[in-house]
Amino acid sequence: MAESTRVGSPQTARSGNPCVWCGREVAVTGVGRRRRYCSQSCRQRAYEQRNAVKGTTIPADAVILTAVEAVELVDRMFEVRCAAEDVATAVAEGAESSELAQLCERLTELAREAERFR
Q1: Mind spelling out the 3-state secondary structure of 53-95?
Q2: How many CB atoms lie within 10 A of CB 55?
Q3: Burial class (CB in 10 A: 0-12, 13-18, 19+), 118
Q4: Bridge-partner residues for 25, per DSSP?
Q5: Contact residues for 11 (Cβ-Cβ < 8 A; gap 6+)
């Protein structure tokens, strides 16, 4: 098996790494440590939050959401569940492969959106 396709190889482990702050995909540089943030802005926001919780009982790795952000996250998760149920229903009803592909594409799109916390 080639080095680049072996499971657990450095190249495979680095692909699709989400930003610790916003959840967007982080570009892979291929050299040095893995980047944790997709941009300097996300890195700065994370720094500000870590400093804001210093000296409190809130854990440094806590994700703090406003009430609006929490509601939006729950709404996105509901959309993902509904899309998954649509796929399951289409499979049970023997839908065409093109329809299933379209439903799976929508499910994947919604899941990516739901990964974003901010």
Answers
A1: CCCCCCCCCCCCCCHHHHHHHHHHHHHHHHHHHHHHHHHHCCC
A2: 7
A3: middle
A4: 18
A5: 3, 4, 30
Identify the CA nearest to 34 among candidates 48, 51, 13: 13
| Boundaries of every domain in the chain | 8-61, 65-118
Three-state secondary-structure class, residue 18: strand
DSSP state of 4: G
pLDDT in tens, the chain (118 residues): 344 333 333 333 445 688 888 878 888 877 888 888 999 999 998 888 888 888 889 887 777 788 998 898 899 999 999 999 999 999 999 999 999 999 999 999 998 888 776 5
Residue 1 exposed, middle or buried by CB count within 10 Å (0-12, 13-18, 19+) = exposed
Q: How many residues does the chain have?
A: 118
Contact by Cβ (8 Å): 63, 87: no
For the chain, what is the largest distance between any 2 Cα atoms, rounded to a whole number of angstroms?
A: 58
pTM beyond cutoff 0.70: no
Query: Quick check: 35 and 24 in contact, CB under 8 A?
Result: no
